[in-house]
Amino acid sequence: MNDDLSSALHDLVRSAARAQGSGDALVTPDVVRRARRGRRRHDAVVGAVSAAAVTAVALTGGTLLRDREPAPPAVTTTHAPSPTPTPQPTATVAPTVLPAGDPALPEGACGSVLGPPPEDDGYFALYGAPTTTEVPAGAALPVEARAGLGGYEDLAVVPDDGPTFLVTRDDVVVARGTAFAGATGVLVLSTGGPNESRTVVGNLDLAVCAPEGQAAVTPGRALPAGEYELHATLAVTTFPTGTELADRNSGDPAEDLVDAPGAAARVLRSAPAAFTVVGEALEPAARVRPPVTAALPEPPAFADAVCGAPAPARWDAGGTLRLEHPVEPLVVGAGEPVDLGAHLVYSGPGRLQGVLTHRVDHWVLQDGALVGRGWPGPSDDWWSQATLDHGATLAPELFSQEWTLTSCDEEFGVGDPLPPGEYVLVPVTELSVDRLVADDGSVVGTGEQLHQLFGDPVPLTIR
């Protein structure tokens, strides 16, 4: 590794934050439509009352019959009116009440008021954002975060659960949580440098939080429709440059180090990123998550990129870890760069932890054998400690993958551009799957082995 690469990571973190501030590269999902309520009509039937016939009394010679009794008086029957139904009270649901801003609360607490983010010193930096600009009410918000944790000699203690995400409305914290369904509360040691940056991709439940001293708030309700901002925050304990912590490896539990001599607490916070909640929902939707029952299946042996090597065996962790990209036939000119826009998807149980290489290379095959490659040549790689929650989709922008396709040479460095012809292009990335963490915090070990993840073959024409 070298200092140029470290500077490149810091520039990347800065540029990511600036890009987020401009609203670039966000994906918009379908807008949920509201259901309509029908009404029933009732027809009223009006009954007609028929008139009774009147019987005439027969008269003879104009003289009345004197030997008859007087007719009894007529009897009138009166019908009581139907009782009027008593109106029943209509059930009403109290409106969702968000926390009000309380300047007395500590910054980041529910109901607190957020000021500007802390100054970015270029070494310890945090980027966080939603991966969509619009989310249905009641649904979880897809989120991602990336943290740079100092230079090569820096040590820091950070939460293994990653950043805490804050949702604000008018600068007031109204919802908060991590990117995962459950939290472990474990603190781990992290060494500095670009190879110890951290990537977190998951989902945040958008539920109203419970502030202190605000009885009118309705905690647990789904956030109502409106405009919000997302902030990622990360509590970090740093140590003076050159500190040596004996018998410690990166990723080891480190709760006891927060009180070590020279330890200093600080909080990183990303620039705000806007998103919109649309539609109506009373409660957050329940997440459907498969249980962690076993480690991921073992991958095939690592395939070396040797000129003339056969097509690689594809491994996708039993269908749960996939490199996705367009598969339509591709036509490019000789020497033109190729970018498939590939991205990583994890649909397995719990959350997956390991090492992610932020690069997608291209293998070029002809007649089933490797004849060329798209990659930057021998170089330092940018990789990070990554945690991917069930359903996580990593953005293509997280991977360098725009390469010129070059032919084989003896050293398999960067050779001449591939000549015109018909080929097959296969994208590939490298990663280490270290362990699975269930929603209850229990761990399933998988072994710390470097894996190759291959995408689908793409027909390629170089003209």
Quick structural summary:
Helices cover 4% and strands 33% of the residues.
Give keywords.
mainly beta, 463 residues, 33% strand, eight-stranded mixed sheet, disordered N terminus, 4% helix, 1 helix
Structure, described:
- The chain is mainly beta and 463 residues long.
- 4% of the residues lie in helices and 33% in strands.
- The strands form 3 sheets. Strands 1, 3, 8, 13, 14, 16, 17, 18, 19, 21, 22, 23 and 24 form a 13-stranded mixed beta sheet that branches.
- A hairpin with a 2-residue loop joins strand 17 (361-366) and strand 18.
- 36% of the residues are buried.
Note the main sheet: 13 strands, mixed
Provide the gyration radius in Å: 35 Å
**For the terminal residues, how far apart are their CA atoms?**
38 Å
The count of DSSP E runs of length 2 or more, i.e. the number of strands, is 24
pLDDT < 50 stretches: 1-79
Overall residue-averaged pLDDT value = 80
The coarse overall form would be globular
Q: Helical element count?
A: 1
- Order of helices and strands, N to C? HEEEEEEEEEEEEEEEEEEEEEEEE
Share of residues in strands: 25-35%
